[in-house]
Amino acid sequence: xxxxKECVFCNMAQDPxxxxxxxxxxxxxxxKDANPKAPVHMLIIPNMHIASLAYVGPGQVPIxxxxxxxxxxxxxxxxxxxxxxxxxxxxxxDSGQEIPHPHMHLLGGKKLGAMG
Length: 116
Prior knowledge:
Blueprint: H1 8-14, E1 23-24, E2 28-32, E3 40-46, H2 61-78, E4 85-88, E5 104-108
Antiparallel strand pairs: 1-2, 2-3, 3-5, 4-5
C-alpha cells in the first residue's frame, strides 16, 4: 500500500506552489488528466490521503461531498454543465485505478458512450 510520503497526489496536495492544480481549496484540488479520455478530463482529488474507498467513513463525508461540489464548479468552468458530463471513481486494480489515492474523474466535451 502506498504511504502518503510516496503518493504523487499527496505530494501535489502538500505543495501549494505546484503548477498542476487548476483548482485548490482546503479539502480537495483538481488537475487535468495526463492521459485524457475526453476533451474535458479532470481529476478531483482529496488533499487527505485515503488508501482506499474501503477506509472512507463518516469522518470523510465532508471531503467526499466537496468532491461533487468542485466537480460541478469545474464542469461550469469548462462549459459542460448543460451538455453533460460523467463522474467516475475507480476503486482497486480490477477497476483500472492507477494511483492508490481515491480521486474522481470528470469527463465531458463529447458524446460519451453508455457504460456497462
